[in-house]
Amino acid sequence: MELILIRHGTTQGNLEKRFIGTLDVPLAPQGEALAWQVGPTLPAVEHVYRSPLLRCRQTAQLLWPGVEQTVVDELRETDFGPFEGKNHEELKDDPLYQAWIGAPGGANFAALPVGESAQQVVERVSAGLKKVAADAGRRGFGRVGVVSHGGALMGLLAQYGRPEREYYGWMCPNCGGYRAQLEPETLLLHVTQAFPGDGGNFLK
C-alpha cells in the first residue's frame, strides 16, 4: 500500500511563527493558493485520511478535490500546552521557554517542556497509522493520501521512516511531505519520494 503523507497548507500562525497545535485555525489565503498549486503535482489517491483540524480538511479538499475523506483523530497535531498560539516575542520572558531555547544544542521540538511529550505524540500518531492501514487494507485501496501536521509527521517518520533519520531529518514544509510504501504489519514506511511544498517554515 502506498501513502502520500502531506503536511497541511500555510496558516496565519505559520506566517507569524506561532505554536499552533490544537488550535483549530483555517488556512491563510497563501495556504489555499499553495494547495491549489501543489495539488496537480501530487499522485492521484483513492481516499484521504486526515487530522480532524480545519486546516487539514481544507488542504485535503484543495489537493484532491472530490476524493472522500476519513477523519482520524489521532493524526492531530502536538498539544503545545501554554505555548499554544504564542510566538517567540510573546514567550521570550517565560522561564520555561527560556530554559528550552537555552538548552544544550538549542531548541528541540522533540523535547518541549510543556504539552505533549514527543513519545506521547509518536504513540498517538502510531495508533492513527494503524487505523489507516487497517481501514485502507479492508477497503482494498492501493494508494491513499494522509494529511496531517509537521510535528505529527516528523514524529511518525522518525519512528517508522526508512531509511532511518533523526526527528528533524523528516521536516515537512507546508503542503510538502513524502511518498512511502507502508508495511501494514510493522508500520514501516519505505520513503521513495519527497514533495517540496513551499520549502518554508516548519512551525505547526
TrEMBL record:
Active-site residues, as the UniProt record annotates them: 8, 77
Molecular function in Gene Ontology: phosphatase activity
Pfam family, one: His_Phos_1
InterPro entries: His_Pase_superF_clade-1, His_PPase_superfam, PGM_Phosphatase
CDD domains named in the record: HP_PGM_like
Binding site for substrate: 7-14, 55
Protein name: Histidine phosphatase family protein
Organism lineage string: Bacteria, Bacillati, Bacillota, Clostridia, Eubacteriales
